[in-house]
Amino acid sequence: MKILIKGASFIVTLNKENKIYRDQDLYIENKIIKDIGSNLNYPASEIIYAQNKLILPGLINTHHHLFQTLTRSIKAVKNTPLFDWLQYLYRIWKNITPEVIYISAMLGLSELLLTGCTTSTDMLYIFPKGAKGKKLIDEEIKAAQVLGMRFHPARGSMSRGKSKGGLPPDEIVQNETEILEDSERIIKRYHDKNLYSMCRIALGPCSPFSVTPSLMKETEKLARTYQVRLHTHLAETKDEESYCREIYNQRPFEFLEKHNWLGEDVWLAHAIYLNAKEIKKLAKTKTKVAHCPTSNMRLGSGTAPVSQSRPRSRRERQQ
Ligand SMILES: [Zn+2]
Q: How many separate domains does the chain show?
């Protein structure tokens, strides 16, 4: 693949120096930008004329549930809080099939591509009993391959159904052995740790109210054995906090910390209800947060205090 882009009005690098080029060409060879300059002349297989256009790095989406693209506009739950919203939709999601996963991934990933996003994760956490033995996550990986999108799917999981005190119905949770075996299978089959990789797998037990503590522990071990990343929801709502206090006698963050889920290889979705001490620990351990304002605004249940995650400048302190 050799692509020459001619005469771009702006090339915004977003590198450390924030360098911006004006009216320059850019040459790409096999996924790598090889050259930027005036009047470049390479034997390209594709030439794109980019006058009056802007080039910038592809956006990266750090949290998603692609299967939910097919159930976005359901009137009955348009104004409900998270737990009610989930309990209503679990009843629809229990009918998920491989075809649903493929179509929803094609739709969701295409929308992302059309808005400038070239790398996305996903967390697929519904594996209904009816789809037992079916390779669901493989379908979304196939969709990303067809679209040519860089994809880092998290193999989501839920092991604590209603009968064990969890939120989801038992029909859509799996036992730990099934989850861990499938997680290992997809790591071996798809995870590519090389530079410029188009697919990397992460492991993602869904949330404190839908997993068993031993699944958190075993998933952590498995991920670190294979050096893949860990992803989960944390501190998204006050209801989650109440649940954790009642069931585990811990704050959501304490639940996470207890299972060794802090580190550079972990990223958390939401992280809204954290106290100052917990934020400090996130920074110290370089644990990452996926800030999800759109989802937070829909729920009206708060947004992450992202500005508190870095030391305030002297100017900010004086204000
Ligand atoms: Zn989520």
A: 2
Pairing of strands 20-29, 32-37: antiparallel
Whether the predicted pLDDT of 314 surpasses 70: no
Q: Rounded to 10 degrees, what is the CA torsion of 275, 278, 282, 285?
A: 160
**What spacing in Å lies between the alpha carbon of 16 and ligand 1's midpoint?**
31
Residue-wise pLDDT for 182-205, tens only, equals 999 999 999 999 999 999 999 999
The pLDDT score that the predictor gives to residue 313 is 62
Closest CA to 153 of 62, 28, 273: 62
- The pLDDT, as a whole number, for residue 309 is 57
- What CATH number is given to the structural domain containing 236? 3.20.20.140
Q: How far is the CA of 55 from the centre of ligand 1 (A)?
A: 30
CA-to-CA distance for 211 and 176, rounded, in angstroms? 9
Examine the domain organization and report whether 36 and 63 are in the same domain.
no
Q: How far is the CA of 276 from the centre of ligand 1 (A)?
A: 23
- Residue 135 in this model has a pLDDT that exceeds 60: yes
Q: Which domain holds residue 293?
A: 59-309
Tell me the CA–centroid distance for residue 167 and ligand 1, in Å.
15
**Percentage of residues in the chain having pLDDT higher than 90:** 91
- The stretches of the chain forming alpha helices (DSSP H) are 82-93, 98-114, 136-147, 176-190, 213-226, 238-248, 252-258, 276-285, 293-299, 314-318
